[in-house]
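Running co-folding for farnesyl diphosphate.
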Amino acid sequence: MSFKDQIIAEKLPLHVAIIMDGNGRWAKKQGKIRTFGHKGGVLAVRDTVEGAAELGVKFLSLYAFSTENWKRPRWEVDALMELLVDTISKETKTLMDNNISLQAIGDMDSLPPKCRRQLQDTINITSANTRMTLILALSYSSRWEIVNATRKIASQVASGQLKPEEIDDEVFAKQLCTSFCPDPELLIRTSGEHRISNFMLWQIAYAELFFTEKLWPDFRREDLFEAIVDFQKRDRRYGMVNEKQSDDQHA
Ligand code: FPP
């Protein structure tokens, strides 16, 4: 039976987040430069987005460019930004055809103006689409986001709008870039690395983690389906006990 056939529609994760990793190694294995891997990664993005929408996942987040990625060689950063602009522009029609809206999280001010403009255009054009929201994390890092949120809350306290004792999880989460969506229930990382790399640290508090050896350009919707099948087998307790364990203790 295919992974897709094993998926229980009623138990789909509402939000899946992916750390796309391994583009450089994929290119190197073929004797090519790193940007070849990023181009290969675009095909994986396309197939994964379509696969997620086809299943009925409501939010799909992709870690496309981290704050740390600015430290890569200039030619690679430029090529990545170019590829992003190009892909977002070309895929706007696909997003419209599939009723998918685009959102971006991260430090938009640090992106090249051309990239910011293209993103904003596609975000605006797709804003009424309802089937799925694709969230691109660009110039994003979780610590940056948390520090930013803390600053906003501190200034609300300083101006008397908010009392320190009123700060709770909900108040804090409202100041994060992801305030418009639920937390991811499933986080996937490709390329065999078992790290979170500063991605959605607050939001993945209760997420299930799935690591695969596949390099990102080789990732396809079947791999997403495999991760979801695995997710559906997990016993999600959020720090509580499940009914079976609780019954056993009382027996
Ligand atoms: C990680 O691989 C990948 C990235 C930093 C960029 C991801 C970008 C894309 C897939 C291209 C376009 C994306 C969209 C959303 C249109 P790496 O370079 O860190 O690989 P390595 O760990 O093997 O060096």
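Result summary
The pocket of farnesyl diphosphate is lined by residues 20-25, 34, 38, 41-42, 45, 62, 64, 69, 83-84, 87, 136, 191, 216 (CB under 6 Å).
The CA atoms of residues 190 and 212 lie 5 Å apart.
Job closed.
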